[in-house]
Amino acid sequence: MANARESELQYPLGDTLPQPGRVLDLAPGVRWVRMGLPFALDHINLWLLRDRLDGREGWTIVDCGIASDDTRAHWEQVFAEGLDGLPVLRVMATHFHPDHLGLAHWLTERWACRLWMSATDFNLARLASSSTVGMGGETVAAFFGSHGLTDPESLEKIRARADYYPRMVPQVPRSYRRLMDGMQVDIGGRAWRCIAGYGHAPEHISLFCQEEALLISGDMVLPRISTNVSVVDVEPEADPLTLYLASLGRYADLPSDTLVLPSHGKPFTGLHARIDQLREHHDERLADVMAACRQAPTDAAALLGVLFKRKLDLHQTTFAMGEAIAHLNALWLSGQLSRVLGSDGIYRFSAA
Questions:
Q1: pTM of the predicted protein model
Q2: Are 207 and 194 in contact (CB under 8 A)?
Q3: Which residues are within 8 A (CB) of 40 and not within 5 positions of it... i.e. 6 or more apart?
Q4: In what residue span(s) does the Metallo-beta-lactamase domain sit (predicted)?
Q5: What residues does 3 pair with on adjacent strands?
Q6: With b meaning 16 or more CB within 10 Å and e meaning fewer, what string describes 160-178?
Q7: Rounded to whole angstroms, how far apart are CA atoms 51 and 168?
Q8: pLDDT tens digits, 280-290
Q9: Which of 64, 167, 176, 300 is the most exposed place for a label (fewest CB within 10 A)?
Q10: What residue ranges in the chain does DSSP mark as E strands?
């Protein structure tokens, strides 16, 4: 969902963007890389941090891009022109989603280095790269069907997406080093604090550097769009929205002048204002869902037109369904809605 109050944020670099295969310096030893994505959300931001590890000088990569020939080619250009002739010493991933982890195996093999990420997301990635999790296939189609998505063409396309995750994350490194909430990681003589977040991914790790007032926020805080918070088929009664909103409180103690380095959009200041905006956005969406459920028993598919005013492609519809179910589950599990399974196999929610 687009941010109607984006003007309350500040963009210190204006409209300056790094070109594919190029780097842009943000602070001493901090470089911005931007890679393309084949979706409506057409890019991901990746970060290079000057590092020193085991007596060697080099760089840490934070997030990887999807596994594609174009992304590999752009990385090779970065290696040739953007690393000052130094090697990559480690690869960090904020979470398991394909645009963040897709090339982790290739990068760690290419540079003979270790992947660092949370244990939950590492192990889920290993599972998803050999099957799929929440993004396509028969079980996802059945799950969305149980929440009112009955259009045969859409369901058939969802069934056909069984290779969605493995196609973009064909392999996950066999070993890794674990990141955990509250850890202080020394990267090039600077301390970066790990901040775990929940709801968008099982155990998303953001990185905060007090010395430079920099937050690599991953997907937890984005300036222009709201973070996707979805229920998926493997945990159908989950309450990720409540987890996500609680996780935003973990950034409350960060300085007001923190420069946020998001995975999508441009680096910005105004972290606390953006968190307020995100809370308000979800409060409004929850109120919309409650209003609909007061009028008549409602399923998630029927809410797509309520929650999303624009036309959705199939990729966006899968995320939108997950979001609609997340809002319903938050209200249901807090006792504000009741849930009934109809004789047609569809869950409908009503005001309790």
A1: 0.96
A2: yes
A3: 313, 315, 316
A4: 43-264
A5: none
A6: ebbebbbbbbebbbeebee
A7: 28
A8: 999 999 999 99
A9: 167
A10: 24-27, 30-36, 43-53, 56-62, 88-92, 114-117, 176-178, 184-187, 190-197, 204-209, 214-218, 259-262, 337-341, 347-351
